[in-house]
Write a structure and sequence with these properties.
The protein is built from five helices and seven strands, in the order E-H-H-H-E-E-E-H-E-H-E-E. By secondary structure, the chain is α+β, with helices and mostly antiparallel strands. It has a domain of about 110 residues: Gcn5-related N-acetyltransferase (GNAT) (Aminopeptidase), CATH 3.40.630. A hairpin with a 2-residue loop joins strand 6 and strand 7. Helix 1 runs antiparallel to helix 2. Bound molecules: coenzyme A. The site of coenzyme A has 21 residues, from helix 1, strand 4, helix 4, strand 5 and helix 5.
Length: about 160
């Protein structure tokens, strides 16, 4: 399998990433969230300006396979993984791991000791495999629907291999 290529997000990518966000939630989270919950979650991308602002809030990176964006993730304030979405066609091929590896290394190189994320129930096993520990269960109200997630943290290895980046 080809390794995904990584690059930083640019404002011109916002529409493509909104589409990845929608299809990822709609198809990959069906076992964990009902239809109304998924629709509410997806509606976060309905306001293009607000979605672009969220993407630009932290450092967002895009993973591509054969030149096509297939996933993205954001690091906010060097201590929080905010967004992590992979297209269903590319799921299970290491794209999520490549994205989170890169952001963990970056956060560590910038001096962060730990990372936190509010993991969806779908993503929780992915984060557990990477050494994230569940801290609290949350329910958040999104456009009239309550969705559960789990706050998780991981202690980062000191200054992980990216000196000078
Ligand atoms: C969670 C998500 C980003 C994982 O991306 P991915 O590219 O499929 O993950 P990878 O292929 O890198 O998987 C890495 C490991 O985690 C495991 N894993 C990934 N998703 C999993 C899931 N839903 N359940 C159990 N294990 C999972 C993989 O089996 C793999 O294990 P391995 O190393 O033993 O083979 C993807 O499923 C997704 O976009 N989900 C929907 C959106 C979502 O919930 N985002 C998180 C918001 S907090």
């Amino acid at each position: 399998m080809t390794a995904p290529a990584l690059r930083p997000y640019l404002p011109a990518d916002a529409a493509a990433l909104a589409e990845i966000f929608r299809i990822s939630i709609d198809e990959l989270t069906q076992e964990d969230y009902g239809e109304a919950q998924r629709e509410a979650w997806i509606s976060i991308a309905d306001d293009p300006a607000a979605f672009a602002t969220r993407l630009g809030k932290g450092l967002t990176i895009i993973a591509s396979l054969d030149g096509e964006p297939v996933g993205f993730a954001s690091l906010v304030g060097n201590e929080e993984l905010d967004l992590l979405y992979v297209t269903p066609d590319a799921a299970g091929q290491g794209v999520g791991s490549t994205l989170v590896d890169a952001l963990e290394r970056l956060a560590s190189a910038r001096g962060s000791k730990a990372l936190m994320t509010n993991a969806s129930d779908t993503a929780r096993p992915f984060f557990e495999k990477r050494g994230y520990i569940a801290q609290s269960r949350n329910t958040v109200l999104i456009n009239g629907e309550w969705l559960a997630n789990t706050s998780m943290t991981k202690t980062l290895a000191a200054n992980a291999n990216v000196k000078g980046s």
